[in-house]
């Protein structure tokens, strides 16, 4: 078998590679230089934009766009050095041929990228805010151009695509300085509602961390099965989760102790179960009811046993 042709091809490839090796090395050095330059440009843009405005998200957006632009420029220059026949025009023509396929393949990536830019520009929330999206709730750690990272209250990281955050409802718990909390407290039907309300308000006003302006209030919300439910509402500042839980713990403890010390009942749900034996001879006889309701007066229906017994039979005799 003649391997001369294959040897000539390999020899030619090796010769071309050796000729292109200086260009490859120089291109890699240029690309590393552009990477370092991109990092410097990113830091410079971030420093300049932060000094001129307080929009942290806009600063992050501009710095990242400058970083990506420098990397793209570095790739183009590197490819031009390694492949002297390559021009930006040839790249544009190549992208034009496969642009539709690339658009479909990277549709979700482009959608999240644009949503990330809009989130950084419109700033519905920023890094450090505490947000709730569907079943996820936590502190925003980073807003990238593709996704947003939040740290949940139990110490886990959740990555949410920006398109979902931009098109769906998101609750920003720290959007305002103050936050109102509430809790329903049930008192007994025999208790004085006005007195219980006064005691609850007094307990909330005495609790550290509860704001006096806006003032706390207590509203009757429901006449439930076992209790009269009064809703206690109070405001806290700041509205972060740790402060919210701490204030709720103190308020509920203070309300419970205050009501108990003043003789206000805090009933729990009760249910009475009545068993009814339909085999008894007195079943249905309302003069001998034992299920808890009063016996009927006057002309009442007879017992089921009397209705089922023939008129000719005597009490105690078996029926056919």
From TrEMBL:
Ranges of compositional bias, category Polar residues: 310-320
Domain Mechanosensitive ion channel MscS: 108-171
Residue ranges crossing the lipid bilayer per the database entry: 20-41, 61-83, 89-106
Superkingdom of the organism of origin: Bacteria
Protein topology in the membrane: Multi-pass membrane protein
Keywords tagged on the record: Cell membrane, Membrane, Transmembrane, Transmembrane helix
Assigned GO CC terms: plasma membrane
Principal subcellular localization: membrane
Alphabetical list of Pfam families matching this protein: MS_channel_1st_1, MS_channel_2nd, MS_channel_3rd
InterPro entries linked: LSM_dom_sf, MS_channel_C, MSC_TM_helix, MscS_archaea/bacteria_type, MscS_beta-dom_sf, MscS_channel_2nd, MscS_channel_C_sf, MscS_channel_CS
Segments for region (Disordered): 276-320
KW Membrane (keyword) present: yes
Biased composition (Basic and acidic residues): 277-290
Domain Mechanosensitive ion channel MscS C-terminal: 183-265
Subcellular location: Cell membrane
GO MF annotation list: mechanosensitive monoatomic ion channel activity
Family according to the record: Belongs to the MscS (TC 1.A.23) family.
The name this protein goes by in its record: Mechanosensitive ion channel family protein
Naturally occurring in which organism (per UniProt): Hymenobacter elongatus
Lineage: Bacteria, Pseudomonadati, Bacteroidota, Cytophagia, Cytophagales
């Amino acid at each position: 078998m003649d391997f001369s042709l294959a040897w000539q091809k390999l020899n030619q490839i090796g010769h071309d590679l050796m000729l292109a090796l200086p260009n490859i090395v120089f291109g890699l050095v240029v690309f590393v230089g552009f990477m370092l330059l991109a990092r410097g440009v990113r830091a410079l843009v971030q420093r300049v934009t932060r000094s001129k405005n307080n929009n942290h998200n806009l600063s992050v957006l501009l710095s990242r766009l400058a970083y990506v632009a420098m990397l793209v420029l570095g790739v183009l220059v590197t490819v031009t050095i390694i492949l002297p026949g390559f021009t930006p025009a040839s790249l544009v023509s190549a992208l034009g041929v496969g642009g539709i396929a690339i658009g479909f393949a990277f549709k979700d990536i482009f959608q999240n990228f644009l949503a990330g830019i809009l989130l950084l520009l419109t700033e519905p929330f920023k890094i450090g805010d505490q947000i709730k999206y569907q079943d996820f709730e936590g502190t925003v750690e980073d807003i990238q151009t593709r996704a947003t990272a939040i740290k949940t209250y139990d110490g886990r990281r959740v990555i949410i695509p920006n398109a979902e955050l931009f098109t769906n409802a998101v609750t920003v718990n720290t959007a305002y300085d103050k936050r109102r909390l509430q809790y329903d407290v049930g008192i007994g039907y025999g208790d004085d509602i006005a007195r219980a309300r006064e005691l609850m308000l007094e307990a909330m006003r005495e609790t550290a961390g509860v704001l006096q302006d806006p003032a706390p209030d207590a509203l009757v919300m429901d006449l439930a099965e076992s209790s009269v439910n009064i809703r206690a509402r109070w405001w806290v500042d700041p509205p972060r989760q740790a402060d919210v839980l701490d204030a709720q713990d103190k308020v509920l403890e203070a309300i419970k102790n205050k009501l108990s010390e003043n003789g206000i009942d805090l009933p729990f749900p009760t249910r009475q179960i009545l068993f009814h034996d339909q085999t008894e001879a007195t079943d249905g006889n309302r003069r001998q009811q034992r299920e808890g309701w009063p016996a009927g007066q006057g002309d009442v229906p007879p017992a089921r046993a009397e209705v089922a017994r023939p008129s000719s039979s005597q009490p105690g005799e078996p029926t056919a």
